[in-house]
Give the backbone structure.
Amino acid sequence: MPVPDVMFCAQQINIPPELPDIMKQFTKAAIRTQPPDILQWSAAYFSALSKGETLPVKERLEMPVATQKTDTGLTPGLLKVLHKQLARREVVTIQELQQKWKDVCLPVEQLHNILKLGNFGNEVVWMQFFALGCSALGGSIASAVKHACEILTTDPEGGPARIPFATFKYLYSYLAELDGDISQSEASHVLSSLEQNVVCKTGGLIRVHDFYPGTGKI
């Protein structure tokens, strides 16, 4: 026996009053973030929204960054998303990092390469991983710390991109140690020179143009 058609009237359809705004914000977020896997990203978006967690959303639309070797898919905007989600703790688990990486639709191979480079175990020191992520965006330590400043700064876009010198020192020292071409004494000299000539004049902050090639140097 065929199932009879069910008739609905407007009074029977209950549309939550907040739904239009939720869908509007979701659409804007999808346009800004441009996830290659919209279903995967949407699941992560609404999961985070329901839990009151940081959403996997870029602040603005951006083009992928092409490094010297290859376009990895990682961009400053996506690294900033991951930082907002994970930096609340000093150490994160591999499982959580893998999930957040998957949520923003980044290639798994790139994650494995970064984890291997950092020689991480089951847990990851987030700022070390962040430093390696910045390194993946640029071909030199100077480029990496430039990206770090631009991601971490609270200055408006286009501003001096200032960050605490202590943070800069940690990132630069870690990357210099992994690089192998920069001796400990050379790295110490660079940091000492910057601290004496720059930071003392800026209240403990360092700016992009204080060290980046073209506007300054390391």
Notes: The first helix runs from residue 19 to 33. The chain has a mean pLDDT of 87. The chain has one domain: 58-210.
